């Protein structure tokens, strides 16, 4: 029998190996990744590498369940078919919202949700709760993330990569090609 932590891991495993279109994601990042992440939480959450780094940070703060819930809700909105929706809705409820949830998120209105709502799921059934979690992350965790060693070290490594001789040589070659 797998632990609750294993269940959460497997539930989100596909999110780490695929991008939002279901294509394999690349760990190679554009050089401006951290700059884009710093402009908004939305930009951070659109970037698989940004999500990975933010999760790493939230794990250290013991609040990784917030971003996992947000991601699960995003994935849930794309679910087709009543049976699949029921299954995913129940999984989200049991993982994040139930009083017995393994990775319970702290949201208002959680107590009003009960298992009967899971029988007639719809894509936006978790939207209000997802918005609460997004705002919690945006106005609390996100600003701390931008000051964290995880973010700053990643930014520093990007800058070093950008200033490497190989990157400068490629830029010079491109400049010669386009300026002739």
From TrEMBL:
One of its GO terms (biological process) is regulation of G protein-coupled receptor signaling pathway. SUPFAM superfamilies: Regulator of G-protein signaling, RGS. Keywords: GTPase activation. Residues 40-151 form the RGS domain. GO terms for cellular component: cytoplasm; nucleus; plasma membrane. One of its GO terms (molecular function) is GTPase activator activity. It comes from the Eukaryota. The lineage of its organism: Eukaryota, Metazoa, Chordata, Craniata, Vertebrata. The keyword Ligase does not apply. It comes from Oceanites oceanicus. This is RGS10 protein. InterPro entries: RGS, RGS10/12/14-like, RGS10_RGS, RGS_sf, RGS_subdom1/3, RGS_subdomain_2. The keyword NAD does not apply.
């Amino acid at each position: 029998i797998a632990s609750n932590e294993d269940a959460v891991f497997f539930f989100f495993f596909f999110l780490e190996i695929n991008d939002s279109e279901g294509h394999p994601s690349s760990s190679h990042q554009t050089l401006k990744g951290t700059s884009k992440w710093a402009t908004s939480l939305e930009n951070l959450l659109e970037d698989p590498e940004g999500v990975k780094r933010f999760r790493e940070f939230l794990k250290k703060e013991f609040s990784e369940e917030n971003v996992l819930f947000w991601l699960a809700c995003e994935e849930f909105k794309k679910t087709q078919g009543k049976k699949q929706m029921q299954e995913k809705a129940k999984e989200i409820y049991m993982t994040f919202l139930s009083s017995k949830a393994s990775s319970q998120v702290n949201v208002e209105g959680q107590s009003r949700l009960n298992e009967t709502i899971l029988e007639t799921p719809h894509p936006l059934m978790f939207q209000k709760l997802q918005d609460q979690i997004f705002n919690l992350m945006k106005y609390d965790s996100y600003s701390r993330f931008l000051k964290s060693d995880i973010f700053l070290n990643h930014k520093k490594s990007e800058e070093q990569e950008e200033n490497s001789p190989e990157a400068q040589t490629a830029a010079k070659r491109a400049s010669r090609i386009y300026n002739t």
